[in-house]
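Q: I have 124 residues here and want to know how they pack in 3D. Can you give me a structure?
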Amino acid sequence: MSKQELEVIAQDTACCPGLAATPLDEDQAADLAKVFKALGDPVRLRLLSMIASRGEGGEVCVCELTPAFDLSQPTISHHLKLLRQAGLIDCQRRGTWVYYWALPGVLNRLAAFLTTPRTAGADA
């Protein structure tokens, strides 16, 4: 497997132009606050990480998520509901199990929002 640098062809920044690019309006700030509030809990952050690590189009059954925590199934379901309400994940019921996946582009838009443009001579 070779390591290659990939060229970014297009970037969707319609949602949020970036923290250093333009000040947020009230609606953008309210929307982003919901996302960051959802991510502000260690359990939800781990859940999102477990789901998103499946990659684009990957999904994970709730039966795989629950054993990773010392919490009851209803508590895990509550955390997953908050992640869904924040627009980070979605799900589908199949029989008795629910499968979760990260919504395409959401994490990239968050990363783009938090990224500041590099200037010549700037240190990271």
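Q: Anything worth noting?
A: DSSP finds five helices and three strands in the chain. Residues 66 and 101 are 15 Å apart (CA to CA).
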